[in-house]
């Protein structure tokens, strides 16, 4: 009998799961991707500004994994026949903006954690004690906040001026709240062997085995939305947009999805809704397996009736909200010879990072100078509550101040908001996730950034593993 699989969530994790399911399951398997918004891709969305392609979400992906092999993103690019469209950023350095200056990003750090803090010069002074206490820095199976470990061993300045802005650039989070195991797994593994943090950093760096001269980051010519479209096409999935999955229930042979707008609150009966609170658009769909590739809270809501322990384990994950502002400055606007910069939270700006798009990526001659500015960190949601025009003006003003001078007015701008867009992995996240997966009923799997880490390769690998688990459950 023909199998049917539901992939709930049309971000890159869900689409990667759909492609892998197509490769692993019989040709007549029906795959349905349910995406409650009106578009696939999640945070992969290519926009346009003044005739130039500018990403409205994730900008690029790592080319290799920690083991030196090609990343899951590159593997998917090859599977989709897009390898000839791979492009790489220019080799332009980045900087840290603090104290009214742009300081070059120090070499030889691991997500801001140096192997030797004495090499940082006046950027940050080490004040902790990294002495060998005769045992590994981290116990077997233990997890700590990044900031807790680095503050103890290297002191506050290393965290505040280096690690915090680096983690803020990726997660919009704070080092004192983010799991070492999730954000720096190589360092966590090394810290369970080495007796000092400096030795652990060196071990983690040696284990990465990057080939000198090999590009670190990649993207797709024409934008990452091409990756989204190619994945959807290759999956052969039926795409359902704009219709949320409201409920998930077990049946004797699989799963039943209840689809439709949210239920009406008691006592409220707007036109078009039945007195029972259900929309006339509500319908059900029966499938044999489900890949749940949505954020933590929607996942917990769907899991609660069928796997309450799993729902509780994943439902507590917090998120940070951010906004991206793209500015098209007049051609010839002078910018430093940098790819961009990061801003430590101690500077007090809403701007946490900036990318000089026209320096970092190949762009047509004579094109406007494009700068993409990232605003907001965890806990700063209220500071983002301006309308788009005010937020763009704020980004423009703070950018000029951080660069040390007033910038010319932009010809045009856009603002992209990602409300609750970036997971905040507290220490112990991996253990909580393992406990959740252990109690899931057969034929139900989890995928995506909420569970297995941010970044395009992590999301793709997560989706592919979920698809493999579905396939294995059928062959068992």
TrEMBL record:
<comment type="function">
    <text>Involved in coproporphyrin-dependent heme b biosynthesis. Catalyzes the oxidation of coproporphyrinogen III to coproporphyrin III.</text>
</comment>
<dbReference type="InterPro" id="IPR002937">
    <property type="entry name" value="Amino_oxidase"/>
</dbReference>
<comment type="similarity">
    <text>Belongs to the protoporphyrinogen/coproporphyrinogen oxidase family. Coproporphyrinogen III oxidase subfamily.</text>
</comment>
<keyword id="KW-0274">FAD</keyword>
<comment type="pathway">
    <text>Porphyrin-containing compound metabolism; protoheme biosynthesis.</text>
</comment>
<dbReference type="InterPro" id="IPR050464">
    <property type="entry name" value="Zeta_carotene_desat/Oxidored"/>
</dbReference>
<feature type="domain" description="Amine oxidase">
    <location>
        <begin position="12"/>
        <end position="470"/>
    </location>
</feature>
<dbReference type="Pfam" id="PF01593">
    <property type="entry name" value="Amino_oxidase"/>
</dbReference>
<dbReference type="InterPro" id="IPR036188">
    <property type="entry name" value="FAD/NAD-bd_sf"/>
</dbReference>
<dbReference type="GO" id="GO:0004729">
    <property type="term" value="F:oxygen-dependent protoporphyrinogen oxidase activity"/>
</dbReference>
<protein>
    <recommendedName>
        <fullName>Coproporphyrinogen III oxidase</fullName>
        <ecNumber>1.3.3.15</ecNumber>
    </recommendedName>
</protein>
<keyword id="KW-0350">Heme biosynthesis</keyword>
<keyword id="KW-0963">Cytoplasm</keyword>
<dbReference type="InterPro" id="IPR004572">
    <property type="entry name" value="Protoporphyrinogen_oxidase"/>
</dbReference>
<keyword id="KW-0560">Oxidoreductase</keyword>
<keyword id="KW-0285">Flavoprotein</keyword>
